[in-house]
Structure formats: structure tokens, C-alpha cells
């Protein structure tokens, strides 16, 4: 196998959660470009359909499923049905997440529970469902999307930081446990990207300028730039990599 062939995903089935927009949508498009049959899930049916149309327009193969990742029973049922109809999974991109900005004393019990549920608990539920219905004939991969907030502290984001740090811990625990079954588990930790999630910061000129001074590359990431990293982690190109956290933040966490 050549170096470039190792990045190909032909014949692989990859499930991407939270793929109705932002980094999830861009990642799904890249995975399809690399040859994967992509299953995309999300709560917004129309946006999910639009992402699927875009993938099909470039010759990609995609299936959609409207799914609330915080409903554990629905997740287990959906993963089982999809594995039966599309085929056993070769990779899972655990991307569904929600941001939360509030001073620590303003974080309510409901806020905390909601953020931890979607960002951390749903990642565990999806990983568990994937492991039950994965392709056992070759190496498979789970990619958990953490954040620079899973590596460093961020003011005003106690619930988000805790949940994304939990994703890093979950990644390492799973990696050690399932490695002998030829399942790799890694985390991708994006920094600031031009998506809706950091919208409040990027909409403020002064806040954006202050942010860019902290990023050595001097800019925020473009959504399409996430795709090649996900292809790497989902493919045989990262066959000897597990339990790792790949910082993808323009150098923010290198300081």
C-alpha cells in the first residue's frame, strides 16, 4: 500500500454525528471524497438533507438519519438499524456537541447536565453502540472531537471545558481497553474555527483581534480544513496511532 493509498476509505462505512452543519458537515464531505460511504446524523432534518445533497453532488455516497444523540435508547436503536441496512461500521466520528458561555456562578444545574449530556455522555453512548456493530474483519477507528478547551482552561466555559476534558479521558480509557481488538480511539482537539459555535467572539471585532493575537498562525481555521485531519484519523494512515489527542488549533495550545 502506498502512502497516499493509506488515506483512502473506499469500501469503508463511516458514521458522523452532529453533521448537519459546521465541522461535522465539512468532515463528512471530506470522508466521502476519500471514498467512504458516509452516514450523517443530526437533529435538523432540512440542514442534514442539504449536507447530503452537497455530498451527492460531488459523487459521494451518503445516508442520513435524524437523531438526538442525548436519547441513548434512540442512539442504540438507530446504530443497530443502520448497521443492518448499510453495513457494519468502520469508523465513528463523535462530533455532536454544544457550546456554553457563562460565568461559573451563573451555570445552572440544567446547563451543566445539558452540556455534559451532549458533549460527553453521548460520545460514550455512541462509542459503545459502534463497538457492538463495528466491522470485525479489519482495523476500525473512533475519533472523538474534543476541543482546545479539553486541553486548557477557558474563562466562562466551566461546563464546556469539563465535558471536553472528559472526552479526552474517555478517549484514552477506550483506546487502552479496545486496542487488542484492533480498534483505534483518538481525539481531535480543534481550536477556533469560522463556524457558528464561536460566533459571539468572531462577531466582535475587538474580541476577534484579541483572539488572533493568541493564535501563532494569526487566523482562525476554515471549516474545510478539518476534513483532511479526520480522513487521516479514520483511515489506515493512522493505523499505529491510538489514545492520542491531536491539537488542531493554529498553535494556540503550543504556548
Structure description:
Helix content is 42%, strand content 15%. By secondary structure, the chain is an alpha/beta fold. It has a single domain (5-246), classed as 3-Layer(aba) Sandwich (Rossmann fold). A seven-stranded parallel β-sheet has the order 3-2-1-4-5-6-7, with helices on both faces. Helix 5 (158-178) links the parallel strand 5 (140-145) and strand 6. Helix 1 crosses helix 8 (226-234), helix 3 runs parallel beside helix 4 and helix 4 packs parallel to helix 5. It is globular, with a radius of gyration of 17 Å. The model has no long low-confidence stretch (mean pLDDT 95).
List the helices and strands and how they pair.
Blueprint: E1 13-16, H1 22-33, E2 37-42, H2 45-57, E3 61-66, H3 72-85, E4 91-94, H4 109-132, E5 140-145, H5 158-178, E6 183-190, H6 199-202, H7 205-214, H8 226-234, E7 245-248
Parallel strand pairs: 1-2, 1-4, 2-3, 4-5, 5-6, 6-7
Strand order of the largest sheet: 3-2-1-4-5-6-7
CATH topology: Rossmann fold
* Distance separating the two termini: 37 Å
If helices are DSSP runs of H or I spanning 4 or more residues, what is the number of helices? 8
Keywords:
255 residues; alpha/beta; Rossmann fold; 7-stranded parallel β-sheet; 8 helices; globular
Brief rundown of the structure:
This protein is α/β, with parallel strands linked by helices and 255 residues long.
Amino acid at each position: 500500500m502506498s502512502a497516499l493509498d493509506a488515506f483512502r476509505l473506499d469500501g469503508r462505512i463511516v458514521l458522523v454525528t452532529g453533521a448537519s452543519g459546521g465541522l461535522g458537515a465539512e468532515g463528512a464531505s471530506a470522508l466521502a471524497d476519500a471514498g467512504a460511504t458516509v452516514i450523517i446524523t443530526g437533529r435538523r432534518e432540512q440542514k442534514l438533507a442539504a449536507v447530503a445533497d452537497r455530498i451527492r453532488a460531488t459523487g459521494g455516497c451518503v445516508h442520513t438519519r435524524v437523531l438526538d444523540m442525548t436519547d441513548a435508547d434512540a442512539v442504540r436503536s438507530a446504530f443497530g438499524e443502520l448497521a443492518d441496512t448499510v453495513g457494519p461500521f468502520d469508523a465513528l466520528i463523535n462530533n455532536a456537541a454544544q457550546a456554553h458561555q457563562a460565568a461559573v456562578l451563573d451555570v445552572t444545574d440544567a446547563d451543566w447536565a445539558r452540556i455534559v449530556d451532549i458533549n460527553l455522555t453521548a460520545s460514550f453512548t455512541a462509542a459503545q453502540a459502534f463497538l457492538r456493530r463495528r466491522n470485525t474483519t479489519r482495523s476500525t477507528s473512533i475519533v472523538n472531537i474534543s476541543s482546545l478547551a479539553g486541553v486548557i482552561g477557558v474563562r466562562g466555559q466551566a461546563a464546556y471545558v469539563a465535558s471536553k476534558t472528559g472526552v479526552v479521558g474517555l478517549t484514552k480509557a477506550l483506546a487502552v481497553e479496545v486496542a487488542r481488538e484492533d480498534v483505534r480511539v483518538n481525539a481531535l482537539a480543534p481550536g477556533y474555527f469560522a463556524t457558528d459555535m464561536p460566533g459571539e467572539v468572531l462577531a466582535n471585532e475587538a474580541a476577534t483581534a484579541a483572539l488572533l493575537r493568541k493564535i501563532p498562525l494569526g487566523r482562525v481555521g476554515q471549516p474545510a480544513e478539518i476534513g483532511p485531519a479526520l480522513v487521516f484519523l479514520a483511515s489506515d494512515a493512522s493505523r499505529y496511532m491510538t489514545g492520542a489527542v491531536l491539537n488542531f488549533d493554529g498553535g494556540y495550545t503550543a504556548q
